[in-house]
Automatic annotation (TrEMBL):
SMART domains: GIYc. It comes from the Bacteria. This is UvrABC system protein C. CDD domains: GIY-YIG_UvrC_Cho. The gene is uvrC. One of its GO terms (cellular component) is cytoplasm. Residues 14-92 form the GIY-YIG domain. Residues 291-476 form the UvrC family homology region profile domain. The UvrABC repair system catalyzes the recognition and processing of DNA lesions. UvrC both incises the 5' and 3' sides of the lesion. The N-terminal half is responsible for the 3' incision and the C-terminal half is responsible for the 5' incision. One of its GO terms (biological process) is nucleotide-excision repair.
């Protein structure tokens, strides 16, 4: 397994999609689908395979490319289309007569409804495709049970009906058809049924479902349990039914789709080719920005560049936003709703996931670039005058108002610098006063920093809202540090970011890397403060018992706790064991104290 594959496996998402394997020459070897790309693709490389052919395939894989989709169903459809298009060496050749079926509402007078594997551009409506033929048959069976739709292929023109060209067949006599061929049913009545059927196929089948439930209850009350079970199975199949696919839509034909996602340094451009309603090609590329190019500029350049590289000549192009670009004989469209918008959303999803994959790989290969990017992004997101290379976070711990402490944690380049952590035992504040505690600790911290000539942080993060932030600012004002260091507060409830003299908080995206760093600082300060607070309470509990013994001072208490670890062990120690640690005289005082201690109830 080469380094490129290792990096790819480390950055694959836990989401559905299609993967493609290429050899050193760039030949496409294999296309597969996965419910979880990371788990499925990794399985090829982390175990020994029994199949010789599979071992040969894995040994020849040089490059892995993926296409991300919304569901396993979509991955199945996309895999089908790509295999038929590219015919990879290690795939079973999928023939046209084995492709997925559609439900067709035929474009004709008194439309027929039937399944088909051939999509014909004759104005007919097509729904699907269906990866589960069983689901499609259940749906067609339901339609047949609910509505009387003709199955014959007669040309039911007004002239033919008026001339009595056709006679009703067996379907009419058994109640499956209302006889439009002889004029027994009007076109208006028939089309009302078609409208209802169209809604059912699209997934609006509450009315039909209730009908089936009533039928099931009726059969069960009549003790016809086998028929009731059949109806129950139809209901269950309908609940698993998917009416349409975001991957394939017969209304979209011969279209090129372009989208882009970007950050300060890089842009990620995705291209998809749609042919006869199916994705047959998808490609994502990373571009390093040279200047401050806009997404519009880069996307226009991508359209021209990719069109030349891939010999694209479709008459329509879908993009996510308006472009100031005109291409002869090609129309540029910004879809707003429906299947076209779903295709754009899918393209954008591929750019975002590709970006995350690249960032994960960069973190492994080039950690400095990864750090620089995050620091720059934090500067932009938080509106700071400088990159926050040095962050100090503060949190108070005063559970039950006893032994109050305040923690100061230090992050450098977005990572904890634990050797620089500090804990402050609160001295001037009585009781659980969070605001006064923050004011005292901030002043003590930065008075010492100034006195020792240590560098100030670029950012101070206060755990709390407006009150805690205001308290910290009082101390910074007294020290003359307002404006020399940035300070913000982060509230826990909604992760609001508060700024000095600004009544309105900033809300960052929950997936923002900037917010993740701030949360890490906040959580670390809370953890460090809580840990030290507990230790102090435990130590004080130990000391409070030993301090009651006459003639036993702080140094002796320290020696006892160092050797015996707990008051309980000191209490149970023999006179000889105590003598070895603190001498005979003091050992006798300790032993006599615990021997005379009154038992507790």
């Amino acid at each position: 397994m080469n380094e490129n594959i290792k990096l790819k496996l480390a950055s694959l998402p836990d989401s559905p999609g299609v993967y493609q394997y290429y050899n050193k020459k760039g030949d496409l070897l294999y296309i597969g689908k996965a419910k979880n790309l990371k788990r499925r693709v990794s399985s090829y490389f982390n175990k020994q395979h029994d199949s010789k052919r599979l071992r040969v395939l894995v040994s020849n894989i040089e490059t892995i490319e993926t296409i991300n989709v919304n569901s396993e169903y979509d991955a199945l459809l996309l895999e089908n289309n790509l295999i038929k298009e590219h015919k990879p060496r290690y795939n079973i050749l999928l023939k046209d007569d084995k492709t997925y079926p559609w439900i067709c509402i035929k474009n004709e007078r008194f439309p027929r409804i039937f399944s088909t594997r051939n999509v014909i551009k004759d104005g007919s409506e097509y729904f699907g495709p269906y990866s589960s033929v069983k689901t499609m048959k259940v749906l067609l069976g339901l339609i047949k049970e609910l509505y009387q739709i003709r199955t014959c292929s007669y040309d039911l023109s007004e002239k033919n009906i008026e001339n009595d060209k056709y006679k009703v067949c067996l379907e009419y006599h058994i109640g499956n058809c209302l006889g439009p061929c002889e004029g027994y049913q009007t076109e208006e009545e028939y089309n009302e049924q078609i409208t209802a059927i169209r809604n059912i196929i699209k997934g609006e089948f509450n009315e039909a479902k209730q009908y089936l439930i009533d039928q099931m209850i009726k059969y069960a009350s009549e003790l016809k349990f086998e028929k009731a079970q059949i109806i129950k199975e139809k209901i269950e199949s309908l609940q698993n039914y998917q009416a349409r696919s975001t991957i394939v839509s017969p209304t979209i034909t011969n279209v090129d789709v372009f989208s882009i996602s970007s950050d300060e340094e890089y842009a990620y451009v995705n291209f998809m080719k749609i042919y006869h309603g199916a994705i047959i090609q998808s490609y994502t590329e990373e571009w390093k920005k040279k200047l401050d190019e806009t997404d519009e500029d880069l996307l226009e350049r991508a359209i021209i560049d990719f069109s030349e590289r891939f010999n694209l000549n479709s008459k329509e192009i879908y993009v996510p936003f308006e472009l100031n670009l005109e291409i002869p004989n090609r129309k540029i469209t910004v879809p707003k709703i429906g299947d076209k918008k779903h295709i754009i959303d899918l393209s954008l999803k591929n750019t975002r996931i590709y970006r995350l994959e690249q960032l994960k790989q960069t973190k492994i290969v080039d950690p400095d670039r990864h750090t620089n990017r995050i620091m720059n992004q934090m500067k932009i997101d938080l509106r700071l005058p400088a990159e926050p290379r040095h962050i100090e976070g503060f949190d108070n711990s005063n559970i039950q108002g006893t032994n109050p402490v305040s923690a100061c944690v230090v992050f450098k380049n977005g990572k904890p610098s634990k050797k620089d952590y500090r804990i402050f035992n609160v001295k001037t504040v009585e009781g659980p006063n969070d605001f006064a505690t923050m004011e005292e600790v901030i002043e003590r911290r930065y008075t010492r920093v100034i006195a020792e000539g240590e560098p100030l942080p670029q950012l101070i993060l206060i755990d709390g809202g407006k009150g805690q932030l205001s308290s910290a600012l009082k101390s910074l004002d007294r020290l003359g540090l307002r404006g020399k260091v940035s300070v913000i507060g982060i509230a826990k409830r909604l992760e609001e970011i508060y700024y000095p003299d600004d009544p309105y908080p900033l809300y960052l995206d929950k997936n923002s890397e900037t917010l993740k760093v701030l949360q890490h600082v906040r959580d670390e300060s809370h953890r460090y403060g809580i840990t030290n607070h507990r230790n102090r309470r435990s130590k004080n509990a130990f000391n409070s018992v030993l301090e009651e013994i006459d003639g036993i001072g702080p140094q002796t208490i320290k020696e006892l706790l160092t050797n015996f670890k707990s008051v309980e062990r000191i209490k149970n120690a023999s006179l000889l064991e105590l003598t070895d640690v603190i001498g005979k005289s003091k050992a006798k005082k300790v032993k006599d104290y615990f021997s005379n201690e009154k038992p507790t109830n």
